[in-house]
Amino acid sequence: MANVPKIGKAVYKGPSVVKEIIYGITLGLAVGGLWKMHHWNNQRRTKEFYDLLEKGEISVVVEDE
Questions:
Q1: Which one-letter DSSP state was computed for residue 58?
Q2: What is the value of pTM for the model shown?
Q3: Other Cβ atoms closer than 10 A to 62
Q4: Distance between CA atoms of 65 and 59, rounded to whole angstroms?
Q5: What are the transmembrane regions (predicted)?
């Protein structure tokens, strides 16, 4: 029994602060980018709507028959 190899145990060291910060920044940038794309899309649609309204191609008033 003198030459029996020891089996190492996995030791939980706790959260890595640097990894947590990097994960947080990455996730924040990704979600922020998606939010900006959503915002730009809404702005474009609103601008197109008012441009068409100004040209008279569309109307918000219901026409009587």
A1: S
A2: 0.61
A3: 6
A4: 15
A5: 21-37
